[in-house]
Amino acid sequence: MWQWQQLQQIPEQIYVPAGRTAFKRPNHWEPWNEDRIPAVRFIEYFRISRVDFKWLCKELRGELQQDALGRGEPLTVEAQVAVGLYQVGHGATYVNIGHVFNIGKETAEKASARFVKAVLRVLSICLVRELLSRMSWKLMQLCNACDISIQHVPLAVPPHDKWKGYINQKNWSSIVFQCVVDGDGNFCNVSGGGPGSMHNTRVFRRSFIGQSLLGFAPPMIPPRAMLVGDAGYPGAL
């Protein structure tokens, strides 16, 4: 009996460690590398086409490229762009974005912030100016419109005592001209020659086209044509 009790206690004294497996996060969701995703579904995810997605990654690669520091593999440029577009396009929280792309919440937040900063730093100036320029020219071509604006030509300070009148609003001497340009970039009318301190309204009223529009001279603007100017020009003619 005593021997049987001793044999029963032996397994209880032996420690058998349980098997352990390290947790491995699933692979990142990379729809930009999956050709099986339809183009319509890709646009639903990121609000842009696959071609535009690749172009955006190319433009922002210099700002979003990260070097591995030995503490894990950083997100690729494509992944950061995808996270940023998904957050902007859907307004999802970082927790949901983490579940979608199989990344951490903090990683999603940092990737989205880097994407927005890169877009503002790289694309805000050149693309907006180019887009506005194209839109203005197309609008002028469609509406048969002409642009009227004031241009300052730099001038050396005159030797006489009236040089102060040539100092414009930017504190340098110039001669002011009023130019009218059509939608194709052709000069239709040029007038001026006054000192740089002369206001746009005064230059307009002294010009031949201004006299024509104010009713003091024969008409110069063709029928059904538009003349586009800034706030310095009178709005009701």
What would you say this structure looks like, in words?
The chain is an alpha+beta fold and 237 residues long. It has two domains: 21-122, no CATH class; 139-228, no CATH class. It is 45% helix and 13% strand. It has helices spanning 2-13, 39-46, 50-64, 77-90, 94-101, 105-122, 126-143, 200-206, 208-213; strands at 145-154, 174-181, 187-195, 226-228. A four-stranded mixed sheet has the order 3-2-1-4. Strand 2 and strand 3 (187-195) form a beta hairpin. Helix 3 packs across helix 6 (105-122) and helix 5 (94-101) packs across helix 6. The radius of gyration is 34 Å and the shape is elongated. It starts with a helix and ends in a 9-residue tail after the last strand. The mean pLDDT is 77. This is DDE Tnp4 domain-containing protein.
Brief sketch in words of this structure:
The chain is of the alpha+beta class and 237 residues long. Helix content is 45%, strand content 13%.
Q: Estimate the helix proportion, in percent.
A: 40-55%
Order of helices and strands: HHHHHHHEEEHHE
Rounded to an integer in angstroms, the radius of gyration calculated over CA atoms is 34 Å
Q: Count the helices. How many?
A: 9
| Alpha-beta content class | alpha+beta
Biggest sheet statistics: 4 strands, mixed
Biggest sheet: strands side by side, in what order? 3-2-1-4
Strand-residue fraction? 5-15%
Task: Spell out the blueprint of helices and strands.
Elements (H helix, E strand, L loop, with lengths): L1 H12 L25 H8 L3 H15 L12 H14 L3 H8 L3 H18 L3 H18 L1 E10 L19 E8 L5 E9 L4 H7 L1 H6 L12 E3 L9
Helix pairs in contact: 3-4, 3-6, 4-6, 5-6
Pfam families: DDE_Tnp_4
Protein name: DDE Tnp4 domain-containing protein
InterPro entries: HARBI1-like, HARBI1_dom
